[in-house]
């Protein structure tokens, strides 16, 4: 598998290149956004690992330009850890978003998950039952009625609607939506789910966001 690594920090770049090479990947490493975009457009890669903060041309610009011509899978690997940054990366067309510092084993797992999906990228528009989520326009509707969500609520729904029928634990949700380890004394996930449920389910006959006691939550049409 041929991977393009776009990372300007020498220590991080060298660490990633060595680790990925030892894991069986062929890695091209460049240290600027301009060089990264040129390589991504002129050579064939199975996947691009992209930092956000790059000299000359940042990662947002690189991905925006790349998506005009190429569907190469892209994983953002960056210290930018705000929910708004992760949502922006996904909206621009990234296939995944991993925050530094990270465990190398998790990076490998995410890379392999993306590569198993094949060459096509996940659609920007996801539908389930009568809910439609447009990741590019950040627009959600149910039965044609617009639902206004905060950035965290949008990220939470995006995670749930892509995995319908799958029970997601509080720790899974916390790690992917808030990028934090779940503390059993913290009810941040429960509060966010409650607010999302009020917007998505209240006023509609069919309820989609369910609590699975002792396990977590599931997005599922049970009619």
Please, how many domains? 2
Quote the distance from N terminus to C terminus: 44 Å
The SSE string, one letter per element, is: EHEHEHEHEHEEEEHHHEE
Spatial strand order of the main sheet: 2-1-3-4-5
What topology emerges from the helices and strands here?
Layout: E1 2-6, H1 10-22, E2 26-30, H2 33-42, E3 47-50, H3 59-66, E4 74-78, H4 83-92, E5 96-99, H5 104-116, E6 125-128, E7 131-134, E8 139-142, E9 145-147, H6 151-161, H7 170-178, H8 188-200, E10 209-212, E11 216-219
Parallel strand pairs: 1-2, 1-3, 3-4, 4-5
Antiparallel strand pairs: 6-7, 7-8, 8-9, 10-11
Helix pairs in contact: 2-3, 4-6, 6-7, 6-8
Describe this protein's structure:
The chain is an alpha/beta fold. It has two domains: 115 residues, Response regulator (Rossmann fold, 3-Layer(aba) Sandwich); 95 residues, Arc Repressor Mutant, subunit A. It is elongated. It has eight helices and eleven strands. The strands form three sheets. A five-stranded parallel beta sheet has the order 2-1-3-4-5, sandwiched between helices. It has a four-stranded antiparallel beta sheet with strand order 6-7-8-9, with helices on one face. Strands 10-11 form a two-stranded antiparallel sheet. Helix content is 39%, strand content 21%.
């Amino acid at each position: 598998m041929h991977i393009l690594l776009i990372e300007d920090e020498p220590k991080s770049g060298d660490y990633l290149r060595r680790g990925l090479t030892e894991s069986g990947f062929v890695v091209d490493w460049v240290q600027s956004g301009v060089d990264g975009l040129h390589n991504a457009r002129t050579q064939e890669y199975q996947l691009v690992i992209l930092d956000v903060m790059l000299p000359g041309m940042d990662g947002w610009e690189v991905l925006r330009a790349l998506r005009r011509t190429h569907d190469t899978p892209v994983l953002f690997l960056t210290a930018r850890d705000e929910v708004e940054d992760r949502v922006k990366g996904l909206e621009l067309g990234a296939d995944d978003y991993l925050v530094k510092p990270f465990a190398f084993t998790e990076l490998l797992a995410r890379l392999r998950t993306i590569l198993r999906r094949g060459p096509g990228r996940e659609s920007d528009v996801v539908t389930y039952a009568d809910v439609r989520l447009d990741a590019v326009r950040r627009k959600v509707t149910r039965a044609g009625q617009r639902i206004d969500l905060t950035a965290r609520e949008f990220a939470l729904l995006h995670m749930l609607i892509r995995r319908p029928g799958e029970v997601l634990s509080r720790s899974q949700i916390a790690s992917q939506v808030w990028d934090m380890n779940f503390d059993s004394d913290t009810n941040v996930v429960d509060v966010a789910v409650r607010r999302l449920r009020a917007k998505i389910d209240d006023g509609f006959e069919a309820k989609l966001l369910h609590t699975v006691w002792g396990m977590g939550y599931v997005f599922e049409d049970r009619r």
